[in-house]
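Entry for the shared binder. Reason: the reviewer on the internal report wants the predicted structure included alongside the sequence.
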Amino acid sequence: MKKPPFVICSVVCLGSTLLMGAAADSSFDTAKIDRITGLKGVMNTAEGDYKVSKPRTDISVNVDGWTMPPFMGLASWAAFKPAMSGQVVVMGDLMLFEDEVNPVMSAALDHGLEVTALHNHFFYNDPEVFYMHIGGMGSIDTMAGGVKAALDASAKVRAAKAQPATTFGDPAMPALSAVPADALDALFGAKGTRNSGMEKFVFGRQVTMMGVTAGGDMGVNTWSAFAGTDDNALVDGDFVCKEAELQTVLKSLRGSGINIVAIHSHMIEETPRMIFLHYWGRGKATDLAKAVKAALDTQSK
């Protein structure tokens, strides 16, 4: 009896999938992951991934009046899983202190990883603890090398200063603000809102959600606020990014020396899906504006 075409297709497709899986598994060199990361991983045969972990035992963390053991979540980890063509997919979560976040983010981005979230996991923790979620796909050398570079960047900060910093270390802000508003308007090609020597710019975007269109006034916006003076200013704000834009915007801001302080979602079930990042920078007002504008220019309209 002749088999229906869909049965033949199913058998062929299943065979191809098994062959690809076997090819991927044969190149999944977990010893290399250990060697590159400097950590000893554990294979999960049920899920087919290999996970390395690094508990933070170097600094004691107090959460809500309790000295938390690393076992309770004070650790960095990365899990690797074989993919097609000898590549691996990696997902991970890096436990960081505030002064480690931006050096580690730059190291991760510079070494082939994506940064997908940055947020807290606790309240009332001393010192402050943040978690940076990472991901990516590539060769074992690149993905494991990116994890190692990120961990090394964290260790470098701690080697230079044993206890986490409590400020960015920039000069004190002027008592009164007088930013060069006309120059900032010219750089952005827009008229900002001015208040007591400060200035804010808001750039709206649109999504659809719950059957309606939501725009800038409903929070779908990038904003940038400036305070201080021309030579001693700060900028803080929020970028709204399509998922495909996030890594480019992060690289642009970090390349200009802007600090990233949070990456997360603000909505659910919106189209297109948007990710928000919050940032903080110090320096000359026009240089900060140029940095923000350069990041804006990487985004689609």
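Summary line for the report: The chain has seven helices and 17 strands.
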